[in-house]
């Protein structure tokens, strides 16, 4: 009896270590409906069918039924109610595996992740770890920009973002607010740059990859270029044709030119002042 108990414990430990059972989302030939199978291709969950579904990430899989998204557990039971217009998988878009993004009132003419609508992050129990924002950006570097407004942004390149009725802040990959929503405009550069150019109360500054200020918001305009990327806040937000005044010798790549009245101060991408330019 004792040996049988030991063998059973070892079997359960082995199953847990390999994240058994292994379940896979499959689609019918027409693409819908979706269903889940075991590692041998046998349908599970009593042949349950879903309008759409995603693969299991740990112990949660996103599924859609009757137009609403939620999550099931490895037994096929509903773990998080199907009540959202859209959701990501846990750990998607750069967020921690403990959180997923959910949306309601999604614009059907937009890719869901780009739709400005009530958006929040939830944990694996379905509890919200953020309030509903108007927009949550995917994580870039170590933080994700969020906006507390509801009005659409205009730049489809997802670089220059500005909501008419909201301001930008940052959450970390677990959804914790690390920068309050105080910035009215933001240039969100690709993660290789490691910083973002932001405007607060009409003045420009720079945040690092964690959303922390490295250049204070005290400047009238910013110019930056790297390869094909050019940021000129004066040209983007002021009268057509106006731009940040070029220094003697022109602009150098990978430097931030911060203009205050008639003077231009130069900084590295890390926020260090450059002397003698």
List the helices and strands and how they pair.
Blueprint: H1 2-17, E1 24-27, E2 34-37, E3 52-53, E4 61-65, E5 68-72, E6 78-84, E7 86-87, E8 100-103, E9 119-122, E10 135-136, E11 144-147, E12 160-161, E13 168-171, E14 177-183, E15 185-188, E16 195-200, E17 203-208, E18 213-219, E19 221-226, E20 229-232, H2 233-237, E21 256-260, E22 263-267
Antiparallel strand pairs: 1-2, 3-4, 4-5, 5-6, 7-8, 8-9, 10-11, 11-13, 12-15, 13-14, 15-16, 16-17, 17-18, 19-20, 19-21, 21-22
Structure explained in plain terms:
- It is a single chain.
- With 277 residues, the chain is mainly beta.
- It has two helices and 22 strands.
- It has helices at residues 2-17, 233-237, and strands at residues 24-27, 34-37, 52-53, 61-65, 68-72, 78-84, 86-87, 100-103, 119-122, 135-136, 144-147, 160-161, 168-171, 177-183, 185-188, 195-200, 203-208, 213-219, 221-226, 229-232, 256-260, 263-267.
- The strands form six sheets. Strands 12-15-16-17-18 form a five-stranded antiparallel sheet, with no helix packed on it. Strands 3-4-5-6 form a four-stranded antiparallel sheet, with no helix packed on it.
- A hairpin with a 6-residue loop joins strand 15 (185-188) and strand 16.
- The relative contact order is 0.07.
- The model is unreliable at 1-18 and 153-159 (pLDDT under 50).
